[in-house]
Amino acid sequence: MILQILQDALFAAIAAIGFAAISRPPRRAYLYCAIIAAVGHSARFIMMHEEFFSMNIILATFLASFFVGSLAVFLSPLARVPAETCLFPALLPMIPGIYAYKTFGGLAMCIFGNDESAFSHSFYLFAQNGLTCLFILLGMVIGATIPIFIFKKVSFQATR
């Protein structure tokens, strides 16, 4: 189990560094982006795992995003960058790509299907995956921005 958590953290950190490279932050921010992503993604992994909390992906993503946002707010002054510089690359590995993929797959099956029962099943897949994807994304956005507003003084400390 520990190996799975470490593997999850490593891949999240690598993805965060790749996403951070797109926006070209200062080099000192890459380490913080990687740490925040690794801790946040691993927290979601632990919350969702059956041996620990067995939490729904939507709630686990919301709580992990809140944790990522809080870490970004408190670690960004150490990196001397705005909190968003560390926050957004750290959140991107948690984007629900498989649900988005299945949503559009269900939509395509709805459009190209011939049978009414096949259409009903395809529409069910489209709606279920689409709503799951939507609520995960909403949970990420809301969970990550709450710490910025709660800890406003600390959050804007790096930009002064």
Structure notes:
By secondary structure, the chain is mainly α. It has one domain. It contains 7 helices and no strands. It has helices at residues 2-23, 27-48, 57-79, 83-91, 97-112, 116-150, 152-155. Helix 1 (2-23) packs antiparallel against helix 2, helix 2 crosses helix 4 and helix 3 packs antiparallel against helix 4 (83-91). The chain is elongated and about 60 Å long. The N and C termini lie far apart (43 Å). The mean pLDDT is 93.
Largest sheet, strands/sense/barrel: none
**Class from helix and strand fractions:** mainly alpha
Q: What percent of residues adopt helix (DSSP H or I)?
A: over 70%
What is the total domain count? 1
Q: What is the mean pLDDT?
A: 93
Q: What's the total count of β strands?
A: 0
Work out the helix count: 7
Strand content: under 5%
Contiguous low-pLDDT stretches (5 residues minimum) are none
Order of helices and strands: HHHHHHH
Describe the structure concisely for a colleague.
With 160 residues, this protein is an all-alpha fold.
